[in-house]
Amino acid sequence: MNILEVKNLKVWDVNSGKEIIQDSSFHLKSGSCLAIVGESGSGKSVTCRAIMRLNRSSLHQTGNILLKGENINLLSEKEMRKKRGRNLCMILQNGMSAFDPSCVVGVHLRETLAEHFNWSKNEMEVKMTGAMESVMLKNPTEIMNKYPHQLSGGMLQRIMIALAIVLEPDIIIADEPTTALDTISQFEVVEQFIKLRERMGCSMIFISHDLGVVRKIADDVMVMKDGEIIERGKTEAIFSEAQHEYTKYLVSTRLALSDNFKKVMGEGLLVAEG
Ligand SMILES: Nc1ncnc2c1ncn2[C@@H]1O[C@H](COP(=O)(O)OP(=O)(O)OP(=O)(O)O)[C@@H](O)[C@H]1O
């Protein structure tokens, strides 16, 4: 069963008239992870933000975005706000931008949970504490009393993953969640994403430049170039028998994880590289 079906998505800039996404159709199978790969500017983020309906107002979009059969592209902003967080959860590249810098993270977490659940403050605390411990964040109470700038990028990403665990969304969209992190934190955050999938069996869209990570985490891969999907297939098929020249080029140039990352991950953790 498909949890998400995107049909004929078009996104264009009303100011310049430039078409950013020409005519994109793809689906996400329930419980699976779809990676979107492609060079910078190929339209990966705009596609994901179109699903969340979070592109800037100067970008217009048409097409059908069916979440469990419901066309969310037709929803009002108010209705859409209810879907964000509870049904669709986005984890961004820079954890710092996801949090309000003027309040401690606990306030942000409680406000987010209060939008979707009628839990008491104590219930929220218990659930968040459990989820934070499960992503290896020690001293959750202390962390919740800190401002975002007092926490590292890796910690903020893990807090976002913990929040997703509590929200239990239908789909998690992760847009380069490890790019801004140092090598050790990248490793920890990737591990937490893998665990999240194992534990919740959630459906996921994962954007990454790092094809080593994609190979570890994704079931299917979709390749984008200049706003178009040029190839899509099972992860192993994309890596071993890509049809499109551009995909072959990406695989040959981008599969190599940074040497440091490889060392930290340990060769044994990687699926054999063909
Ligand atoms: N708000 C905007 N207004 C106009 N054009 C935009 C806007 N946001 C993105 N674009 C353009 O849309 C195209 C796709 O951008 P997008 O950010 O989706 O690429 P990407 O594949 O995610 O790249 P990266 O890997 O660098 O994040 C680019 O040409 C970009 O300049």
TrEMBL record:
InterPro entries: AAA+_ATPase, ABC_Ni/Peptide_Import, ABC_transporter-like_ATP-bd, ABC_transporter-like_CS, P-loop_NTPase. GO terms for molecular function: ATP binding. It comes from the Bacteria. The keyword ATP-binding applies. Transmembrane segments: none annotated. Residues 6-251 form the ABC transporter domain. CDD domains: ABC_NikE_OppD_transporters. It is a peripheral membrane protein. The keyword Manganese does not apply. SUPFAM superfamilies: P-loop containing nucleoside triphosphate hydrolases (SSF52540). Belongs to the ABC transporter superfamily. NCBIfam families: opine_ATP_CntD, opine_ATP_CntF. This is ABC transporter ATP-binding protein.
